[in-house]
Amino acid sequence: MEELLKTCLCADHQALGAQMNEFAGYLMPIQYSDITVEHNAVRKAVGMFDVSHMGEIFVSGPDAESFVSHIFTNDIIGIAPGKVLYGMMLHPCGGVVDDLLVYKSVNPASYDYLLVVNASNIAKDYAWLLECAQGYDVKVVNASDEYGQIAVQGPLAEKTVVEVLAMEAAPALEFYTYCETLYQGNRVILSRTGYTGEDGFEIYADTETIVSMWRTLIEAGVTPCGLGCRDTLRFEAGLPLYGHELSDEITPLEAGLGMFVKLNKPEFVGKDAIAKQKEEGVTRKLVGIELLDRAIPRGGYSVETADGTVIGTVTTGYRSISLDRSVCVAMVPKEYSALETELFVRIRKKVFPGKVCKKRFYQTNYKK
Amino acid sequence: MAKVIEGLLYSESHEWVKVEGEYAFIGISDFAQHSMGALSYVDMPDVDDELEQGEEFGAVESVKAASDLYSPVSGTVVEVNEALEDAPELLNEDAYSNWIIKVKMSDPSQTEGLMDAASYEQMCEE
User: Fold this and answer.
1) Domain interval for residue B88
2) Chain A interface mutation, best of B33, B46, B56, B64, highest count of A Cβ atoms under 10 Å
3) Topology of domain A56-138, per CATH?
4) Which among A197, B42, B66, B72 could disulfide-bond with B84, CB atoms 3.0 to 4.6 Å apart, if both were Cys?
5) Which burial class, exposed, middle or buried, applies to B28 when counting CB atoms under 10 A from its CB (0-12, 13-18, 19+)?
6) Which letter, b or e, does each residue of B73-108 get, where b requires 16 or more Cβ atoms within 10 Å of its Cβ?
7) Do A232 and B41 touch (CB under 8 A)?
8) pLDDT at A3
């Protein structure tokens, strides 16, 4: 087996007694105490995640704007410095290379855009960006190894970032904006974004600064949260995870993410395929399914009709911690995607009846 | 430290068996519930299901994972513990007073191949 990569906080996780496991090639904390406890800390108070495995790719140069617009589905032309946009990079066929955040620089002397990508896709994304950069006067730098990242999430996130980390800039940040500020004299990127359905911040800095910040937050009593509850939180909030709800073969329209694909842009890679799919209509869609029973529908289980025909697959599913309901997201043919459609999930030897529902199960609490 | 109770028999897959005549009550050990964490669902067979020794008869599930249950004996399911349907956490609270299924054994001699408390405790420590 290949040696697992470690984030700058790996030793700290092990010292805290975290249960560690492989994720995207990294040795990552799955839980420190208990997934439910950590999940509820984020929903009701504040929790923090080491997400240093995420990729940071900086783009600069005279053609930076047109280049990022070329590879990104959302509309970045003319957005204000400090704005963050969610969207996707697509293959020409419309499948998703990755979903990512694009940061419009507040510090153009250093870079024009920051692209934050999934850990599992860093190498693929970087190669893709270099390939697409042919003919553009841009510099694309993969700085993933130099940067660590901590996500501080939950209703008390703002108070924590201000009081514990002394980041006075936090309250003024709107959702999906960022700034650069200092932590103990070191430059950090402070972003009001997250992957939990709650208000919160994602903070990027060099690895030494991240380690120092993490220890300060631990001393202040902030609950460390593992990737286990990161998945239950993002799932309840209807947020996709690449490799489950998105992939090279799944298009944004099939995933229900059409609002992040701006077909009024003059061009971007994959636009023609998506425009065509939109016109013709998708043949399959991601839907939510709620089971009537307590049985737990998990990723990979098959979705069936009443007569036992397999029509789809669960992408992610849980006994939802916040709602205490057995719910999942599944890819099914469009004709089965209407709300209230009766579908069945096969769990081991039995099938359990359920109904199609919205796939955002939890009412998110973002800062307006 | 996980609890082990004298007088019960144990399987390598962490089920316990309490023998009463030709009937076997089957549950999961304290070690098993502890390693699973908070349980949110217990999948149980139907009454009258026939089980072979070593056959999967259901599962216990926590937030993160499902763990299959294997029958330590062959026989017919005569009762399932319906209280677990709405309160799977009973297994976390006390794994030994909450059996999962009651089986009418077809070959009671199979229990001779199961571990006693001391052997099971030793296995858990290893």
Assistant:
1) 17-110
2) B64
3) Alpha-Beta Plaits (3.30.70)
4) B42
5) buried
6) bbbebeebbeebeeebebbbeebbebbbbbbebeeb
7) no
8) 87
